[in-house]
Design brief:
By secondary structure, this protein is mostly helical. It folds into two domains: 126 residues, Up-down Bundle (Four Helix Bundle (Hemerythrin (Met), subunit A)), CATH 1.20.120; 111 residues, Helix Hairpins. Helix content is 66%, strand content 0%. α2 runs antiparallel to α3. The longest helix is centred in the middle third of the chain and has 40 residues. The mean pLDDT is 79.
Length: 274
């Protein structure tokens, strides 16, 4: 039976564009990442006033060239995909669409073409190229650690929120508008900046009492920063140990469920957890 050339071409393009596990698909994804990075670089350079004045027309031409390329690539993805609508409304489908429309919007709204920097989201395809699924055990351990520590982190954040509200209000009373603490929200903003040790310096206390409170808050900031790190680290160690205990003794694969009895890859019996 003779193969339809149109269907053969469609299948070939589907393998290249969507087949990250094939040599051609992998090469295509790597090349696409390079083009995405180059297109975003052009937009960044165009935002520099001196470069825009000298090379604006050239950079604008490059921008339209990249836009037409990504428009064609998006249309081909819709055409050769097994399910066009499913791809269009998937995460990567939406990202690809957002990478195309800003330049066209620039024809209607001035300055909106700079939104093509959104196109850089397409570099998320690097996870497909790197085959991040091979790190399933590590990802699962981190996910379990964050899930197990979420309540303690929420309690910690509530404590920090209470602290900055109280100290911000206190500084408003102590310093007043004369020293830049014009309102309680402004004072709370100062407390957040000081507690996180960012220290913009746009607002600073001028009275001895206010400076004393600021010094105490700065010292507290150094100790508070390490609290969420410690919470997640402890849970990460526990989760890592739990997942490590579910390692297949035959193929060495990690990440099996706690109630699993056989390896989901090779079928070998797993060690029974005590």
């Amino acid at each position: 039976m003779k193969t339809n050339p149109r269907n053969a071409l469609k299948a070939r393009l589907n393998t290249i564009i969507f087949g990250a596990d094939t040599p051609l698909g992998r090469a295509y994804d790597i090349a696409l990442l390079g083009v995405v990075g180059l297109s975003v670089l052009m937009v960044m350079l165009d935002s520099v006033a001196s470069l825009h004045a000298k090379y604006g027309s050239v950079l604008y031409s490059f921008e339209w060239g990249f836009t037409l390329f990504f428009t064609l690539e998006y249309a081909i993805r819709l055409w050769c995909g097994d399910k066009a609508l499913r791809y269009a409304f998937s995460f990567f489908g939406i990202v690809d669409f957002l990478g195309v429309i800003p330049t066209y919007l620039g024809l209607l709204f001035h300055g909106s073409h700079y939104l093509v920097a959104i196109r850089f989201l397409r570099v998320l395809r690097v996870f497909r190229v790197m085959k991040l699924s091979s790190y399933e055990g590590e990802l699962r351990a981190m996910s379990l650690a964050l899930k197990a520590s979420r309540r303690r982190i929420l309690v910690f954040l509530f404590f920090v929120l209470t602290l900055v509200v109280v100290l911000g209000s206190l500084m408003y009373v102590v310093e007043g508008q004369a020293n830049g603490f014009t309102s309680i929200p402004t004072s709370i903003y100062w407390a957040v900046v000081t507690l996180t040790t960012v220290g913009y310096g746009d607002i600073s206390p001028g009275t001895p009492l206010g400076q004393t409170i600021a010094a105490i808050l700065m010292i507290m900031g150094y100790s508070i920063i390490v609290v969420p790190t410690g919470i997640v680290s402890v849970e990460a160690a526990r989760s890592g140990s739990a997942i490590e205990s579910r390692t297949c003794p035959s193929c060495g694969t990690l990440g099996h469920d706690a109630d699993a009895r056989h390896c989901k890859f090779c079928g070998a019996p797993l060690r029974i957890q005590r």
